[in-house]
Amino acid sequence: MKDFFKLISSSDFVSLFAGFTPLEQETIPLAKALSRVLAEDIISSEALPPFSRSTMDGYAVRAADTFGCSESETALLTLIGEVAMGTSGQAFALRPGQAVRIWTGGELPQKADGVVMVEYTQPFDQETVAVYRPVAPGENVIRAGEDYAPGAAVLMRGRRLRPQDLGVLSGLGITSVPVFRQPRVAILSTGDELVPADQLPPPGKIRDINSTTLAALVDEAGGLPIPYGICDDDLDSILAVCNKALATADILLLSGGSSVGRRDFTLEVFKALPQTEIMVHGVSVRPGKPTILARQGNKALFGLPGHVASALVVFHLFVRPLLRQYSGLGVTLGLQTIRAITEQQIPSAIGREEYVRVRVTPQEKGGLPLASPVYGKSGLLSPLVRADGLLPIDRDSEGLDRGTESTVILFP
Amino acid sequence: MKDFFKLISSSDFVSLFAGFTPLEQETIPLAKALSRVLAEDIISSEALPPFSRSTMDGYAVRAADTFGCSESETALLTLIGEVAMGTSGQAFALRPGQAVRIWTGGELPQKADGVVMVEYTQPFDQETVAVYRPVAPGENVIRAGEDYAPGAAVLMRGRRLRPQDLGVLSGLGITSVPVFRQPRVAILSTGDELVPADQLPPPGKIRDINSTTLAALVDEAGGLPIPYGICDDDLDSILAVCNKALATADILLLSGGSSVGRRDFTLEVFKALPQTEIMVHGVSVRPGKPTILARQGNKALFGLPGHVASALVVFHLFVRPLLRQYSGLGVTLGLQTIRAITEQQIPSAIGREEYVRVRVTPQEKGGLPLASPVYGKSGLLSPLVRADGLLPIDRDSEGLDRGTESTVILFP
After folding, report:
1. In which domain, by residue range, is B156 found?
2. Any idea what the CATH number is for the domain that residue A404 is in?
3. Which of A66, B69, B158, B344 has the fewest CB neighbours in a 10 Å radius?
């Protein structure tokens, strides 16, 4: 007997992902850590910078020695040496009335608390410098630990690492970092009609588009695609590949099930897998209705629509948030959204959330950009190539009038 | 004698990049082509899809045979077979009154011009199907070449390839693509005070932060970083490394020149390199003033500020657009910008464009997000870690009042 499943809403679908736990952590070299997600808080074990540094070329002084000086009444300070770059400034200790030549980044001498820029000085004689502008204590100096003191929380678990974050870690001598493992995503296209992209299809067959598209989507979203190629519509063969894939993968993407027969077949495959529970069978989203989600422990199995244009939308709406959850970023879309104005009326069917492919063009006179629908049958790929993103229309709306301000989810 | 250079504006700086030409092209496998930039137009040499396909499970018919049918007056059509998936539908030729069973994605028989969904049919007897809803010609069918006809322009030179683009290419059997070569960027930190990030710095020395940060910035912007480590402030040593680096690199990033002495030293290095012309020596931007640009043929040499916080801003404003020009994307910033409202007054100095580090927070009541400055000395890295982007203030402005709508350039 055929099971009846209730179509669920996209928000109910996404909320299921909170039940999946982030992947285990691994330690990787800092140089490979861009865009990876921290699995532990990073606490500074030392001061950054490690010593008080000059931010200017000039003279390290006791600031009080310069108070009140001016062009007409210079402060004459005795030069007791120079802090050459990379040498210890602390080797010097300033007594009142003394100064030390210093360069940008150089370590301040003991008792020095300010740096006079070279522009505000004149050599007086071999051992004396004339200062004609006072400095305040701390002026032109970065104090030891002013960036990060020992024990400071530097970067927190769940943070996606940016170039400046890697810079801080290198400054603190942290050259390997604990991050969440990247999700491994097995990709399998099913269908007797498919041939690999590098083959000339015989009559009635076409090249597999989904494998390439899904691998690129996974890659872009920070996952590791594992291609399993094409499998004929044969239960035992598909089960064998799925079992093999699930031995290592965190997510299995099975595509090819747009058709009623195929969709039921995907369901049959998922039900025949060990310890696998069907969680979603149909979602009230267009395109994307025939989507299936199953779960095997902490692994997720998706039955994606066979039309790649629909599969791409389902990937962005549902696969991507789970990839982010696995990666430690939480259940989030992770796509840029903008506000735009509809350039024409966009009709929509009541009862289903609709994700309309749109082009976004800036308005010449400024203001919000214009969103124009890119129409085309759902099986066509060219509208997706022409589109910049998706404009969601909620299930209770019959559509949007021309000139309506809306959100557009931009394709990455 | 010291040369005097005029500080140039950021727009004059960027406009210099139009004089650099995109790198030569290379052909790479489709599976590696995500985010790469096409170096040639792609013209379809065949039709996609290669044949007319059903978009539904149902019956391929001559649409005219269904005209006028209804639930009370069904059209009875003679079943002459089934197009099994992956077999040739053209093996069948429909005569008037005939139908063929077909599945989603199946090839239409000869003379068929529509597909009746299975939901609108009833089996009548073994050889006959009753249709109770008419279809229009072309209904539930994607025509051969409806996505791309032979000879159609599919994707144009200069396009950054997205997942759906790769999908189309795989559908057309194009499994290797001509793209612009990725720019190679040599990164060299100079300074007697620097030690590598994995070493404990002795007194007066600090770890090299710039190498790690710049490599990540290059990586993120689509270039290939080539680390050359740290070089002491010695003209001959630096010249030797620069010559070696420029033998293979397209861009050389020399950092360490915030200080007046160092800046002049970088200039000396660039002038001592063969066939090298100084193009920029100082830019009226804060932070970033001490930036130097030189040119050796089609290669670019940057002298970056030694403060990594300034170097990062210069990278985004000036190195990134050149990377994009080399990559075939044109002289563009390539960073997301949003509109935001200043949360507090932000003062700025007349005469210099200022790029203020800001945090961006959504407003609870909706509307534009708020931008709050993240202050801190220019040598500090922690403000960059806390900031989401840069808010530009033009050179003729004394600052922005609280509540001013502004552009924010978001960090990638």
Report:
1. 35-47+147-180
2. 2.40.340.10
3. B344
